Amino acid sequence: FLVLYSISTILHLGQALKFRLWWMIPTATFVGILEVIGWSVRLWSSQNPRLLTPFEMQLVGTVVAPTPLVAANFIILGRIINQVGPQYSRLTPKVYTIVFCCFDVACLVAQAVGGASAARAVSQESSATMGANIMLGGIAAQLFAIVVYVTLASEFFLRLKFSAPFRQVDASHLLEKGQGAVSKNLRILIYAMSFCTLCIFIRSVYRTVELAGGWFGLVITTQRYFDWLGGGMVTLAIYTLNFFHPGIWLNKNVPTDRDEEEQAVREEEEAAT
Predict the structure, then answer these.
(1) How far apart are CA 140 and CA 209, in angstroms?
(2) Between the CA of residue 237 and those of 35, 67, 196, 221, what are the distances in Å?
(3) Strand, coil or helix: 178
(4) How many other CB atoms sit within 10 Å of the CB of residue 255?
(5) Residue 3 contacts residue 40 (beta carbons within 8 Å)
(6) Global pTM?
(7) DSSP assigned state of 90
(8) For 119-141, what is the mean pLDDT?
(9) Which range has the top average pLDDT, 51-55, 99-103, 126-130?
(10) Integer Cα distance of 60 and 64 in angstroms
(11) Average pLDDT over residues 72-85
(12) What whole-number distance in Å separates Cα of residue 162 and Cα of residue 105?
């Protein structure tokens, strides 16, 4: 996992710089950095099980790390909505970014505070229950945000598919956007985002069940669950954004279905003349 996260982080930084998508640095790239730190100290902890410092650091790092990746998905959805038609969305792209990203930051802070509290309690040989409950609250809130996000995104894509705008706009604007404004690349990006969100959702469910079961529960004491449902899901999610990077697939210069149809008509007219 350490090697995989290191490679993905370097790729994300390079892609963010190449495509000038600066918001991918505090989101996807930052996730990679946190995961590298978390798994590095987890390796350190496994080799020195009596030391508390690496245990405390990996506890906070692996819990908090994936949170900014959710914010990346929120921003990408806002860009898609703005590109194909804000009239089909219940919320404007700007509101999506502000509301969901602020909520994501709040979840990040809650998880960090809870993790630090739990780690401090362990170092003082006192009960870490309060810290675990704070972390659980942060992860559960994030899980709720993902559900709301998926619900609103699903409504948007359904309205787009059936040409049922949520709000009325100028007729000229309607002609410019809509189902015909969805390019093949954009469709692929939407499918990739769906898979990325599913991976993060599975990880959040796992973490919620893990912390709800207590420090000595079956889930938290089973290593393979952590590897598959924790590290594995985040690895799939972060690499999905590497392979299907918005800088490549969310490209306004890519021909849309309408562009291709108009080009075909022009070619037929030229051939006829």
Answers:
(1) 10
(2) 12, 12, 4, 24
(3) coil
(4) 14
(5) no
(6) 0.81
(7) S
(8) 77
(9) 99-103
(10) 6
(11) 87
(12) 34
Please name the residue that has the structure tokens 């993060």. Answer: 200
Helices (H) and strands (E) in the chain, counts: 12, 0
Alpha-carbon distance 251 to 58, whole Å?
38
Is residue 137 packed enough to be buried (19+ CB in 10 Å), middle (13-18) or exposed (0-12)? middle
Asked whether residue 234 carries a pLDDT value surpassing 80, the answer given is: yes
Q: At what angle do helices 67-84 and 30-47 cross, to 10 degrees?
A: 160
Mean pLDDT: which of 44-48, 57-61, 244-248 is highest? 244-248
Per-residue pLDDT tens over the stretch 153-177: 999 988 888 887 877 665 444 444 5
Q: Which residue has the tokens 């709040």?
A: 106
The residue to which tokens 């990006």 are assigned: 189
Give me the sign of the Cα torsion angle 156, 159, 163, 168: negative
Contact 204, 146 (CB under 8 A): yes
